[in-house]
Structure formats: structure tokens, C-alpha cells
Amino acid sequence: MVLAVNSIEQVCVLVTIAFIMARAHLVQPPGRLPRSRGRNLASFVLFLGMALTEELVASQHVQMSARIVSACAAGLLSGPLVGIGVGLGAALLRQLLGLTPPLAFGLILAAGGLCGGLVHDLRPGWALRSRVGFILGATISLLRYALTAGLAGVLRIPGPPLPLGMEAMTAVINGVGVAVILKVLEQVRDLEESSRAAAMSEVRALQARMNPHFLFNALNSIAALSTIRPESIPPAVARLGRFLRGSIEQHDRATVPLREEMAIVAAYLEIEAMRFGDRLRIEIDVPDGLLGEPVPPFLIQPLAENAVRHGLQPLRGEGLVRISARAEGRSIRVVVEDTGVGLVPEAAARLRPGSGPEPHAVSLLGRRLHGLYGREYLLEIRRREGGGTLAEVRIPSSLARGGTSS
To answer: 10-residue block means of pLDDT along the chain (406 residues)?
Structure first.
């Protein structure tokens, strides 16, 4: 009974450590992100610490071997190098603690890490399967018993400390330990994917609400042209068609290359330039090297529309809308500024989420960015030095997110 209680206590400790590692993204499931030295080192330290729980937690002998569980789990989740390193490191630490292991101990732990690592590399889809973890943990435990017994007969050294029946029970417990760790990581992964899918559903719903808003304003601009410059209506309609085509193509995509977003912005601004004539000047400063960066659809367009509608439209005389983008560290910084009337309090209030029954396009943009990036973004609108308004957006670059440009 005491052994069972101590084994359950150790399982709880291992599960807690596994949960913390998963939630903190200290260990990534196979195929999620490319392996790196830093990630491998973090995994090695974490799993080696997990192996030490056998001495640090249990006050007496327990049937579960935290070292076998840790070495097997390390191999399955982080590859053969980490698995072998954890196995050999755990055996060495046991030696340093004055608990001399049998000769087979370090070899078996390294074999567990190696076998788990081979599954990680050759069959990554199996690496999070609980039954694979159970089979690996139980098999390594039984191999430890067989190798220890065999060497005892040959080298005349002490044999296994437990009879075969107890060793079989230990093998089952070790297998369950590996399986439970994998199950915890799998559950955390599924929960995060469900949360991400829910966030993306909201992003698409918000985007669907924004598109009619843009269409309404563009049609108003074309309607204004019918009385001011009728000859400009055909090219304006062509530009609106380009805008709508890009909108439809982007509907089911979480991100698009920046060049596609800039094409839609250019189509919108060209329509407005026809209506405003010489009153509207446009400057765009986006390096070619950033045009392939993935950004959310309609990232810049609502900011440009806000600059035209609320900044320049009330202005008497000429105004400027300037759009620039730069890579700064691990982020992309986009700035949309105008030399219009500035951000009046009434307009600022409309930009805040929940300010009224019909949310402003900029507040919807903030909700979309939160759904995509969590807290890893910045959306700020403020007065511009020298007059007008400045809107700034910062989002993680593709390199910061571990991806590639579209």
C-alpha cells in the first residue's frame, strides 16, 4: 500500500512537470518547430530534472523509475540526442549521489532515449500516442531486468533487486508513467489548437463584417464622382473590381503577403484620389524585401480609410496620406499617417472597442490582431507631430513566429 501511494505521488509530480512544460511551450511536439540547440538544451535540462524526482520526492523505494520514464519521454518528444543524453545523465547523477547503479543501468536508459528518438524522427505521428509510450516504457523496464540478470550470471555481480513478478509490475507502472506524460502533452496541444481554431473563426466573422463596410464607402466615393468627374467612373469601377477580387481571394486566409495587402490599399486610395483630385497626395514607402512578409488581410486598408475619411475629408486644402513599413528586430512596423485635422475626441471614442452598437473598422482590426497574435501586437492611434494623425501597427515577423514568408 505504501509503495502504491509513493508511486502515485511520483506520477503526480511527473504529470505536473509535464503540464508546466507543455503550457510554457518548453517542449514542442514533433514537427511543430524546427529543432535548435537552445530548444534541445532546454529539453535536456527539463527531462534530466524530471529524472531526479525519484530521489527528491520519494522518501523510500517506489516501483516507478523516473529515469526510465524521463529518458523514454525525452526521446519521443525531443529526438535521440536529447533522449540518450537524459539517459546517460540520469545514470551519472545517480552515481554522483552515491547510489551506484548496476552496469546495465546507464545502457538501458540510453537505449530508451535512443528508441524514443528513433520514433520521433522516423514516425513523428506516433510520438504522442499513449500506447507507444506505454510499450516503450514497459519494454525498457523489462530489458533492464533481463540485462541485469544476464550480467549478474556472467560477471558474478548482484542481480536485480526485485523478483520477476515485482519487476513486471514495475514495467507496467513505468509504461503508464510515459503514457500519462504523453497524454498530458497531447491534451494541452489539442486544447491550444481548439482555442486557435475558435480565434480564427472569430477573425473570419469580423473580416466578413468589415468587407461590406469598405464596399459601402467605396461606392459612396464613386457616387460622388458621378457629379464631380463623370469620366472617372469607369476607371474607378475597375479599381473597385480589383479591390473586391482581392477581398474575395483573401476571405479564407489568415495571412496574405504584404504585396497583396498593398495592392488592395493602392486600389482603394486610387478611387479616393479620383474624388479628391489635387487635395489628396499619397506616399508609399515599403521596401521590396518586406513585400513577401505574411500579414493579416485588411491590416492597412482600414487605417488608410480612417486617414482619408476622418483626417483629410474635413480638411480645407491639400493633405497627405503616407504609408510606410519597416522590419524592426523581430517585428514588422507599419505606420499610416496623415496631415489632416487630427484625432478629435469624438473620433477617438469611436475607435475604442465596445464604443457603440456598430464597432468601427479600426476596433475590429484590433480584435482580429488579438485573435491572431494574442498580446504580441501593438495597435496605436495618436496625434502626429506637426498635425494630423498617426496609426502604428506592430506584429511579429515571420521569422519571429518560426515561419516563412508567403
So the answer is: 59 70 62 59 80 60 75 89 89 72 73 92 88 92 78 56 73 87 83 70 60 70 80 83 71 81 88 84 95 90 88 89 93 95 64 50 80 85 90 84 45
CA dihedral 115, 121, 123, 124 (to 10 degrees): 110
Q: What is the DSSP letter of 15?
A: H
Structural contact between residues 261 and 300, judged by C-beta atoms closer than 8 angstroms: yes
The CB density around residue 107, as the number of other CB atoms within 10 Å, is 17
> What's at 273, amino acid-wise?
A
DSSP for 115-166, written as a single string = HHHHHHHH-GGGTT-HHHHHHHHHHHHHHHHHHHHHHHHHHT----SS-HHH
pTM of this prediction? 0.54
All three cell numbers of 101, joined, read 547503479
**How many Å apart are CA 31 and CA 375, to the nearest integer?**
25
